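Limitations

Structures in this collection are predictions, not experimental determinations, and the ligand pose is part of the prediction. Treat each record accordingly. The example that follows, with fe (ii) ion as the small molecule, is included so readers can see exactly what is and is not provided: the inputs are given verbatim, and the output is the predicted complex.
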Amino acid sequence: MKTDFSPQEKAPLSSLDVWEDDLLERYPEPETTAKAKEEFRNYDNPERDTVREFYRLNHTYQTYDFVQQKKADFLKFDRKEMPIWEAFNFLNTLVDDSDPDIELDQLQHLLQTSEAIRADGHPDWFVLTGLLHDMGKVLCLFGEPQWAVVGDTFPVGCKPSDKIVYPEFFEANPDSKDERYNTKYGVYEPNCGLNNVHLSWGHDEYLYHMMKDHMPESALYMMRYHSFYAQHREGAYDHLMDDHDREMFKWVKLFNPYDLYSKAPVPPNVKELKPYYEDLIAKYLPSTIKF
Ligand SMILES: [Fe+2]
Ligand SMILES: [Fe+2]
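Predicted complex:
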């Protein structure tokens, strides 16, 4: 398994947000579909090429073994221990090459997501889920390549669905030539339940394991599967889901628009909001979290 990646291979995108901007083009907010589709057709956009390259790397290197290796390493949580709010500050040290005047920092995206959930009157643990959902992106600060932190997630250990974005890039993934992994079910049983399925490694799975003893199950589903677009948007993996997953995916689907469409031009007032969120964090989480 390849382990040494060049800077270009580690960071094809100018910023992690480029992946999310591309998601917005693929899954535009219903009211803005016409405009977004027009922009989507603009293939001259050089950012589209970096997204393509990003998915090429992601689909090539996210193998079954790669995922096992990342889990064995990161789920030891032996890197850092800090209070949640300090983790937000840490996450905000993720500097990227994009224009700082127009890009919101990581905490602002988290607060816009959580504030949109709060404004709709949802339970407080749902609001907290909005605040925490991308905290796993600290993986980037531990030197992980972008394609092992963000990007649509998909099951490894079985044949990838052609509903996954840029499916042609799976050709270069060694698992596609491995008969243990290249059939419809691969290493899994029909409808075995997603808890028995390994998804490609990234910020969702990492956060799920960090939070699994502290948050309600519905919140954990939203954290763990919010980047699993091939299922929550495309329904491509019904054959691996069990009835409980299907029930819980209502939450994943409910969460997704808050993640994608809550970006507002006015940045949230962090200072004003902090006391409310400090209380909310204290209600559900221990004073420090291990990373
Ligand atoms: Fe995310
Ligand atoms: Fe997000």
